[in-house]
Amino acid sequence: MKRVISILITLILALQITHAATIDTTKVYGVTIDATSKLTNITTSLSNLCKKPTTRIVFDEWVPATDYLTPVTKIHDVSFIMGELLDSYYMKQYNLQQYTDRTNEYLNLLGGKVDIWEIGNEVNGEWCGTTSSVVAKINAAYDIVKSKNKKAALTLYYNYNCWENAGNEMFRWTVNNISSKMRNGLDYVWVSYYEDDCNGYQPNWQKVMDSLHVLFPNSKIGIGECGTTKSTKKASYINRYYSMKITTPNYVGGYFWWYFRQDCVPYTKDLWKTMDNAFSGKSASDEPLSNIKSETQFKLGDNYPNPFNPTTRISYSIPVESYVTLKIYDNVGREIASLVNGYQDEGEYSIDFRADGFAAGVYYYKLAVGNQSLVKRMILVK
Predict the structure, then answer these.
(1) Which of 17, 160, 231, 369 lies 20 to 30 angstroms, CA to CA, from 126?
(2) pLDDT, tens digit, for every residue of 5-38?
(3) What is the DSSP letter of 104?
(4) What gap in Å lies between CA 107 and CA 117, rounded to an integer?
């Protein structure tokens, strides 16, 4: 009898170790499901992806956990699951007791099928309610999740220059409101960002993730939400986000395309193939610019006026949405200014360079797109 019990204990421990090792991957391929209707189509789309995804399931407001038992069970057969306790938009509708009760209800019923629990979504968003109430709710949810030995995730909202109150800026809010216990104990920290909401701004994600890692040294980090409603931009956005090359320690990807159900279900849709290629590391962004057909050419124009004092205009064009840099160098090759550093759509552009404070002489401006670059000379006179 003792031998049988010993064998059972060994098997249980082995299963627990295997389960933990499965969740703590170095690469997360995330997608988001914001509704579970047409469940068979959803599971088929997920199961056919070339890599096993991690599916965020958004648990709707005021819906009992029992409504999700079947969807969670079936999706867990083909995917890891991150359960979003509540979308940020509805955070302010719940008081602390209601949020605590909801957390307990969902964990008690679904805890065995959900691999990661998102205790708070876009928590610094200005629509979430008062900061004190948000902090109380996520602290309570964190304590519940960790008391049950489950994995806890927190999603922040990246809002560089896109806030009304500076106190809600992502890093400032985090420093001021996230406890040291949570900053050292969270398993995952995600960043939600929709560039359509922020005037198309392209963050330097390497610097963002480096800074995030400093604040959350023990957490796996990555992009927690991305997407666009612009149909002509969806494929390029998927390729761009899922192909990010970030070298920050503990960076695991994520991305969690918000519109997976709309764009990639059923899996016969064109964007499903785009997503599958992105998972595999293949994307349109890997194709040389010279192979992409476009009426717009890769071109760097002559600056005007030239010679100039103190301002000149530089024009250029790119044939496909790409990561673009336009930099100014002095006559010994030292970079003195960066005019463009981010993704831009296909098209023609112009930008002014103002040389106040620079000495008269010869300068160079270099346009780089992918593995191609062009350089031209200009003269500053005084």
Answers:
(1) 231
(2) 444 444 444 434 333 335 557 899 999 999 999 9
(3) H
(4) 9
**Distance (Å, rounded) from C-alpha 256 to C-alpha 222?**
10
pLDDT in tens, 136-185: 999 999 999 999 999 999 999 999 888 888 899 999 999 999 999 999 99
Q: Report how far apart the first and last C-alpha atoms of the chain are (Å, whole number).
A: 95
User: Both tokens of residue 48?
Assistant: 């056919």
| Residues forming CATH 2.60.40.2550 domain(s) in the chain | 291-380
Whether 349 contacts 367, CB under 8 Å? no
b/e per residue, 157-173, with b = 16+ CB within 10 A? Answer: bbbeebbeeeebbbbeb
Q: Tell me which amino acid residue 277 is.
A: N
At position 336, the amino acid (one-letter code) is I
CATH 3.20.20.100 for domain 23-286, yes or no, is no
Phi, psi at 217, each rounded to 5°: -65, -20
Q: What is the pTM of this model?
A: 0.71
* Topology of the domain covering 291-380: Immunoglobulin-like (2.60.40)
Cβ neighbors of 150 (< 8 A, separation 6 or more) are 107, 111, 114, 117
Residue pair 291/64 in contact by the 8 Å Cβ criterion: no
Enumerate the CATH 3.20.20.80 domain ranges in the chain, comma separated. 23-286
